[in-house]
Each structure stands twice: as C-alpha cells, then as structure tokens.
Design a protein that fits this description.
By secondary structure, the chain is α+β, with helices and mostly antiparallel strands. It has a single domain, classed as Aspartate Aminotransferase, domain 1 (Alpha-Beta Complex), CATH 3.90.1150.30. 38% of the residues lie in helices and 23% in strands. The chain has 5 helices and 6 strands; from the N terminus they run αβββαβαββαα. Strands 1-2-3-4-6-5 form a 6-stranded antiparallel β-sheet. A hairpin with a 2-residue loop joins strand 2 and strand 3. The longest helix has 15 residues. The mean pLDDT is 96.
Amino acid sequence: MLTLDDVARLAVQLPEVTEADRRGNRTWFVDGKAFAWERPFTKADLKRFGNVPPPTGEILAVKVADLHEKEAVLAAGRRGVFTMAHFDGFPAVLVQLEEVETSTLGEAIVDGWLACAPPKLARQYLTRTQAPG
C-alpha cells in the first residue's frame, strides 16, 4: 500500500520539484504549477458518489497534458486510477494510493510533471532518461 510519503519520494526525484502545503494538503510543484496534490473528498464529492462507496484511503490528483490524455489514461483501466464528476472537463486523474501499483503511480507522477514543466526542462529530462546506457 502506497502513501503520500511514497508520492513525495517519487516526485522530488524530478528536476526542480518543490513540495508545499496548499489549502491544508500536500502539493508538488514544478515552475510554480501544481502537478500532483493530495485530494481528500469533500462532502459534495461524497454525495455525488450516491450509493456507490467512494474509494478509500489517501487520494492523489495528478495533472495530465490534456483531456485526450486523460481519456487515454482512464481507458487503460489501471487499478486505482479513476475520475469523478468534479473533475469533468479538467485535465487530471485521481489515484487511490492503497490500490495503485508503484509503477503506475510513478508513471502518473512523471506524466503530471511533464504536463507542467517548462518545455526546455521537460526536453532535458526526456533526453537524459531516454539516453542509452
């Protein structure tokens, strides 16, 4: 079972990431833009779930590049990755940390970072991580 401390460990490995508290929730930024943040359910969220039990445990919201990427991520059907009505039309997915695989979480965090990082920094990161050797 993963936790927000695991998120922090993965996020701070990326260039120029900072962690701060935003509205009482842990949030990770690059270039002043939030790419991942703790997202507890509000009372309104819980009402929207209706009779369906909401996902339990710590929930992380992670940015994606756009709504097409969001659709693709959700279509992959990875355990622990979902959305809800509040996020309709917003380029981010939700991650249930107690259900998600470590590799899926890592990919989501990198994708969120890439969606928010300055283009030059993102290119440098991709060049470095895709180099043979």
